[in-house]
Design brief:
The complex is a heterodimer of chains A (189) and B (739).
Chain A: E1 3-8, H1 17-26, E2 37-45, E3 48-56, H2 66-69, E4 75-77, E5 84-86, H3 100-104, H4 127-131, H5 137-141, E6 147-151, H6 152-159, E7 178-181
Parallel strand pairs in A: 1-7
Antiparallel strand pairs in A: 1-6, 2-3, 4-5
Chain B: E1 14-19, E2 29-35, E3 38-44, H1 57-60, H2 62-66, E4 76-78, E5 87-89, H3 92-110, E6 115-118, H4 132-140, E7 147-148, H5 154-164, E8 181-185, H6 189-192, H7 198-207, E9 211-216, H8 221-226, E10 229-232, H9 238-251, H10 257-263, E11 264-265, H11 267-274, H12 285-292, H13 296-308, E12 312-316, H14 326-339, H15 388-391, E13 396-397, H16 401-407, E14 419-422, H17 427-430, H18 434-443, E15 446-451, E16 463-466, E17 475-477, E18 485-489, H19 502-512, H20 523-532, H21 535-540, H22 544-550, E19 552-554, H23 565-569, E20 583-584, H24 588-591, E21 621-624, H25 640-643, E22 650-652, H26 654-657, E23 667-672, E24 675-683, E25 691-693, E26 707-708, E27 732-738
Parallel strand pairs in B: 6-14, 7-13, 8-9, 8-12, 9-10, 11-20, 14-15, 15-16, 21-25, 22-24, 24-26
Antiparallel strand pairs in B: 1-2, 2-3, 4-5, 4-16, 17-18, 18-19, 21-27, 22-25, 23-24, 23-27
Helix pairs in contact in B: 3-19, 4-19, 5-14, 9-12, 9-13, 9-14, 12-13, 16-18
The chains are: A alpha+beta (189), B alpha/beta (739).
């Protein structure tokens, strides 16, 4: 089985409640380490402007490139649910291996704290909540209910299989586990 | 287990049900996870969907505010120069002696009117609210001078009272789902929340087929998410566009004359003004286009679409009303709502900008009775008056506090102020003209501030008293523009350090002032009384203890509340609460004021620091100062999880940035005769040319050259108020220069 995310870009206001809830739940200091990020797109010229937001957690890819990139096999993908996890004790840290996982990932999912030797950490699909049968905190934090999570097949059934969205490039070779409701970049449509 | 450790929650954790009481449009239930007197995690409401009240990012960072390393934990007195923030720790006993001593000295030397009490909206609970206990104490001490009005909504309040005789002008949120079209006129709930779940309701309305139009100087996040069309407009010109829309409707006979005949008075006079029969100026779309920058054809289209679609919710709000003739905008919006027959109609709107519903509304909370202030006993009756001049006989307009300190009675203030005691506010930062405010605070003989943080204003204090956060005391609260529901804020923590509530401070100070039996009740006794003696609670709540345990009581509405539905459906038995019993497009009460800047019908008028002001040669840009999403006014500004979400920067269009050599991210100076701020530029197509936007609430921090490095928007704004009492926050001209 494979878990995944759904993101309704037409609803997202870029508020960042998901990002702050993530930091609160996982007790992550302010600074460069952000398991959930919000990407911003602005196109066009006044007054015909297009704006969209895009969430960026770890997509728990079907074929993750971070795993082979890791020199010490600290990253694993769980067989039962496809959640990609890192064993931080095994990770060499940002000084010794030069963040190879981060460089390999096209979505910047692997995150490092500011300190020397910081170990990689990232979205773990809120594993502690997952074990209790709960959705990740970002999903329940979204004030406009733009996010959902669950088994990817169920999400595809419920929301369709759209993989293209503004501010995101679906990498066929690694297959991020996500489906979208995209925002049309032509406002008149 | 093969995963990184997160934030382990073990058996010693208790979960406390609370609700946010910040001065915010939202009022969100929270579950605080507490361990060893520390909040270790925050979760939101756990009601089943669709009723779940989801908190915004601000309260997601609640624990970083409560446990911020810069929380004030002990009383302190000033040891350095004013404004430098140099203090030393003292005992509560010494603090009370100092404050009681100064109150007594000022009273004996100058009389009670030398004492200013500055309260505020920084905390919106029932029991611990902005300074009622202190007001009660100072009244018993012989009196004090204080302020009138609030910075947010006076324009909308005046407009709603004039037009409807009521401030409960909103439909409940779920009624948006019944709208065919929603006009967001200056309203950006994605950022300022404007009622928990409001943005979600708007999204559902859109998904339900409603067309959404946004009229705003900015392509804000609500518009970017929802608007089928963005109509950029220059600040302060909303009323001109509304008047031109009325012009189109009248000339094309699109208005609902039957509605106007039945429910309103004075439309003929408004019509005469709109058509130019009063002043010779036909208020056509071309006339408004010249003023507003909005294309005449767009005004015509909007007028036609608004008048021929039904129902339409025209959502005016309070932001554009924080301007030099702000009340005209809300009155004119309400007039358009009547012209299109949308008042009292499901899916429509009444305008007026306040959005409140008469059930579970913040205004219906009980509080400690402040009692009569001896200083005000010989003043005029002001209850319900539309005459702002009467309101400032014995009080100071909130946007003139510092002017009153500086100029005293000779300058028109009701009193010569010698000392001030402040709580639940950061007025130096949040009223117009922060540099002037700093000067005024230098002039005071004594200044005491109850605070959680060493704010921009607290730095000028002689005495700082540390106050508990909302997590360290229990209280009651209600929302204002949404709901309806009641919230019980359960205390999550023992007070941090030596913090005390404003109520405890007033009570203990009473002993030092020799006022006996000032507060005979415990917090719990007060809360029980405030619930049991309040008719609003008694109508809905079964038991105090159950309410406390649940933390929230939701009122189930059989159908959405629609403002003035009774008045529209059964006008004979339900007159409007105005002198005529009708919607007053023409107000005789206002006519009787004989003030040309406060006309009896809504009018567009030119104002100081609009684009007609010759000052524009020197300062060619208009300044806009809206709410930021990652703080509540100046509250939460120091919370890092929120700071990193969005940098404090000035929105500027490339058309204005390019000729000034300003690139995205460049440090710029924004300045006028009142002050100068340094701030990074955000060059964006999302703002109308000729306008620069700095979100209010960043903390004022002048350097040795007087440049405000904190980039507080109010370093640039004027400490003026309109003739309807609106604080003038969005009528400032500035220039921009690369730093």
């Amino acid at each position: 089985m494979q878990i995944g995310f759904f993101f309704d870009q037409t609803r997202c206001t870029g508020c960042s409640a998901c990002r702050v809830a993530c930091k609160d739940w996982h007790d992550i200091s302010s600074g460069p380490e952000n398991w959930m990020r919000i990407l911003y797109t602005e196109k066009g010229k006044f007054p015909d402007v297009f704006v969209s937001y895009m969430v960026a957690p770890c997509w728990h890819c079907l074929d993750p490139v971070c795993i082979p990139a890791c020199p010490v096999d600290a990253i694993t993908k769980r067989k039962d649910d496809g959640i990609v996890l890192v064993e931080s004790e095994t990770c060499l840290g940002n000084m010794e291996c030069d963040e190879k996982c981060h460089k390999a990932c096209p979505y910047d999912a692997p995150q490092f704290g500011p300190e020397k030797g910081a170990k990689m950490r990232k979205c773990n699909f809120c594993m502690d909540r997952f074990i209790q049968g709960k959705l990740p905190t970002c999903i329940e934090a979204c004030p406009v209910r733009a996010l959902d999570a669950g088994l990817l097949v169920d999400l595809e059934k419920k929301y369709g299989g759209i993989k293209a969205v503004e501010g995101f490039k679906y990498a066929e070779r690694i297959k991020p586990a996500v489906v979208f409701k995209p925002k049309a970049s032509d406002r008149s449509s | 287990m093969n995963f990184q450790s997160t934030n382990p929650i073990d058996g010693d954790v208790k979960i406390v049900r609370a609700t946010c009481t910040l001065d915010c449009g939202g009022r969100c239930p929270l579950r605080l996870y507490v361990k060893n007197n520390r909040i270790i995690r925050v979760e939101g409401d756990d009601a089943e969907e669709p009723e779940q009240l989801r908190t915004c990012l601000r309260c997601r960072a609640y624990r970083q505010m409560v446990h911020h390393p810069e929380r004030l934990l002990y009383p302190q007195k000033r040891i350095g120069a004013k404004g430098t923030g140099e203090f030393e720790r003292i005992s509560w006993d010494e603090a009370y002696q100092i404050l009681a001593g100064e109150l007594t000295r000022v009273k004996e030397t100058y009389g009670n009117e030398g004492i200013l009490l500055a309260t505020g909206g920084g905390y919106l609970g029932s029991l611990h609210n902005g300074g009622n206990a202190a007001a009660r104490l100072l009244a018993q001490f012989g009196g004090f001078v204080t302020h009138y009005g609030n910075l947010s909504s006076e324009g909308a309040v005046w407009a709603s009272l004039t037009q409807y005789g009521s401030v409960m002008v909103g439909n409940s949120r779920e009624d948006l789902l019944n709208s065919k079209m929603i006009i967001l006129w200056g309203w950006d709930p994605a950022r300022m929340i404007s009622g928990t779940n409001t943005m979600y309701h708007l999204i559902k309305a859109k998904e339900n087929g409603a067309k959404i139009i946004a009229i705003d100087p900015r392509y804000h996040d609500t518009a970017a998410t929802l608007a089928d069309k963005w109509i950029p407009i220059r600040p302060g010109t909303d009323t001109a566009v509304m008047v031109a829309m009325a012009n189109v409707m009248i000339k094309e006979n699109l208005h609902d004359q039957a509605f106007l005949d039945r429910y309103t008075v004075g439309f003929d006079k408004f019509k005469a003004y709109v058509l130019g029969q009063e002043d010779g100026v036909d208020k056509t779309p071309s006339w408004a286009a010249e003023i507003s920058g909005v294309d005449a054809a767009a005004i015509e289209d909007l007028a036609r679409e608004y008048a021929t679609t039904e129902p339409v919710a025209l959502m005016d709000c309070q932001g554009p009303a924080r301007s030099a003739m702000g009340e005209q905008y809300n009155r004119c919006a309400a007039t358009l709502c009547a012209m299109t027959g949308n008042v009292g109609r499901s899916g429509g709107s009444a305008g007026g900008g306040l959005m409140g519903i008469p059930v579970g509304h913040m205004f219906r909370m009980s509080s400690i009775p402040p009692g009569k202030n001896p200083f005000e006993l010989d003043g005029p009756r002001v209850k319900g008056t539309l005459d702002i001049r009467l309101r400032v006989v014995k009080r100071i307009h909130v946007n003139k506090i510092f002017d009153a300190i500086l100029r005293g009675k000779a300058g028109g203030s009701p009193a010569d102020i010698k000392m001030a005691w402040s709580m639940c506010n950061n007025y130096l930062n949040q009223t117009g003209n922060s540099n002037k405010a700093a000067k005024a605070l230098h002039k005071l003989e004594f200044f005491c501030v109850n605070e959680l943080f060493m704010t921009a204003q607290a730095r000028y204090a002689d005495l700082v008293l540390p106050v508990t956060s909302a997590a360290e005391r229990s209280d009651l609260t209600m929302p204002w523009p949404s709901g309806p529901y009641f919230a019980f804020v359960n205390r999550a923590l023992e007070p941090l350090g030596e913090c005390k509530s404003d109520l405890d401070i007033a009570s203990e100070l009473a002993e030092h002032l020799g006022i006996k039996d000032f507060n005979p009740h415990t917090e719990e006794e007060w809360l029980k009384m405030l619930v049991e003696l309040n008719p609003e609670y008694q109508k809905h709540i079964k038991g105090y203890h159950e309410f406390k345990k649940d933390g929230i009581h939701r009122i189930k509405l059989p159908k959405p509340i629609v403002a003035f539905q009774e008045q529209i459906e059964d006008p004979e038995n339900h007159p409007f609460d105005t002198p005529s019993g009708k919607i007053e497009i023409y107000s005789q009460r206002v006519a009787d004021l004989n003030n040309p800047l406060c006309p009896p019908i809504p009018k567009y008028m030119s104002t100081p620091e609009d684009r007609n002001d010759p000052l524009i040669e020197q300062y060619p840009l208009q300044l806009l100062t809206p709410h930021a999403k990652n703080r509540v006014h100046s509250e939460l500004y120091n919370v890092e999880w929120l700071r990193e979400v969005e940098a404090h920067r000035a929105w500027i269009n490339p058309i204005d940035a390019d000729p000034r050599g300003v690139g995205d991210g460049d440090e710029i100076y924004v300045f006028n005769d009142r002050g100068k701020v340094a701030i990074p530029a955000w060059v964006t197509e999302r703002i109308i040319p000729g306008v620069i936007c700095i979100f209010e609430g960043a903390w004022y921090a002048p350097d040795e050259n007087g440049i405000d490095r904190g980039a507080c928007a109010n370093t640039l704004t004027n400490d003026a108020y309109s003739d309807g009492g609106a604080a003038v926050m969005n009528s400032s001209l500035v220039q921009v220069q690369r730093a």
